[in-house]
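Journal club prep, shared notes

We agreed each person brings one worked example of a sequence with its structure written out as tokens. Mine is Glycoside hydrolase family 97 protein. I'm keeping it raw so we can talk through how to read the token line rather than staring at a rendered picture. Sequence first:
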Amino acid sequence: MSLSAVCPLLGFAAEYLVNSPDGRIAVTVSDDGGRAMYEVKYDDKVFIGKSELGLVTNIGDFSRDLILSNVDRKSISESYELRNIKCSHVDYSANEMVCSFEKDGSRVMAVVFRVSNRDVAFRYVVNAPKGKFCCVVKEEKTSFRMPVGTTTFLCPQSKPMTGFAGTAPSYETRYTCDGPIGKNGWSFGYTFPCLFRNGDNGWVLLSETGTDGNYCGCRLLGESDGNYRVGFPMAEECNGWGDTTVQMALPGETPWRTITLGATLANIVETTVAWDLVKPKYTTGHKYEYGKGTWSWIIGMDSSCNFDEQRRYIDFAAAMGYRSVLIDALWDVQIGYDRIEQLAEYGRQKGVGLYLWYNSNGSWNHAPQSPRGIMNDPIKRKEEMRWMKKAGILGIKVDFFGGDKQMMMQLYEQILTDANDNNLLVIFHGCTLPRGWERMYPNYAASEAVLASENLHFSQGSCDTEAHCGTIHPFIRNTVGSMDFGGSALNKFYNANNKTGSRRVTTDVYALATAVLFQSPVQHFALAPNNLDDAPTWAIDFMKQVPTTWDEVRFVDGYPGRYVIMARRSGDKWYVAGINATGEPLKKTLALPMFDAGKTVNMYMNDKLSNVKVSKKKTVSVVIPDNGGVVITD
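Then the structure, token by token:
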């Protein structure tokens, strides 16, 4: 273990250093001026300048007048299997340093640092003073000071109770790329994860993981000098219901703050830090089945949620060899519970299961779509889920959450645990970012938490910028959690007649590429039954076979907002996928060491399928059209 310390002398600040196992990352922790501070370097270059740590609680201000009194160190070496994230087997190694801080002669708080070869993570542990068994965390002082010249790739947080039916914030705003530091979004900060470029030195991704009902979801607040602070939810979230602070039993732990960094984007794309730091919160005796599915709503909207159309989509899913059909909003009034049972039985005969949409709502926004008033009510929710189990429903999609307050995090957890009792997988929409939930909750599948495919139906402008947005998500949102995007449309138009409505400007191969680039173990693609006749055979055949669970991911090339090329492995089969939003054809010679020299591989490009040979140097040359894609498979 590479660790060193500068011992405190009378009148001087204590300062301790912990390195990553490979020595490239160095974290220095100190009690400068009575404040808990830290700094992060990569290859001896500052990536996070000297930044503040600490908590303000109702039993004490643990951000001032602190003494770093003790440090404990150990090495962490763990392995785990998780088939619903980007990498099915993970070997995690890190150096841990626990920094204990005293105030007024009492040890009040510790900060636990974990430093791996890609990531820095830390969390707070609040001690229990004599006679105190709980506290209120009023504020985090956690900050991240970016070096001068850093540029940003950030998603602004929305003003609460705005957007459709007052459902914001729901992590559904557009990222700004190559922006300067020193701003604060639309005055409300930014949603995690947050990507920064430290000039030619490399990249930094900030996020958090391990958030459950014991804490709130946080955001990042920008300051004019390039410092960023962790911010708690806004009072107006959830229609003003619930505290913006955190109630904590003592001793208590906060979620982890994570910093992923590297000279290239490879560490960002390939990180598993969101899951390395958490453990399952409960076990399950049910083996959940992931896979591909269809849904009518993205093309046909509300009117498509009727019995006959859903039966047609079940037939379509069966023809594609898909696992499920998602029946979206208003099924309770337009189909009814008895006929849902009939559809479930019909699907069972075809080998196709059902997901059912629900409104999360109680009193936190005005979204009218039903079923509503069930998922927020513990009695009705349990009864409903028992009915779903009896009917053989595979899972639920719960939409329109109210914000990031602690009580809303508790609702997510309650839905997940009740669903697990009834063998139901859970997808969240109109929701917060998942924070390690794939490992924490065995029946969690995915979350939206992104400006997803529905906007392509609603807006030609969204269609025109589809590729630009698509090149961002693999570097930011999708790096830290499964992303339920609902894309890969092969219709020319977002309408059931395929002749009117918003027009797709991306190529068919783009649709195939995003099926690989956008990771989620359950994928409800925006395909339609007419695609069996009007889409290219090679495209339909690919969409029948593309996996939704992966064993490995590798960064190949790219830049957020311009282009992305990645490789994913399922079993022994590799899929290399790329999309281009540069405004012109993108010429690249790709180094692909996963393929043998001289091997003939399949290449989907320029809306056709061809065979090419891997060169002796294990490279393949491509020319990806603007708004287009490429997929290479063995």
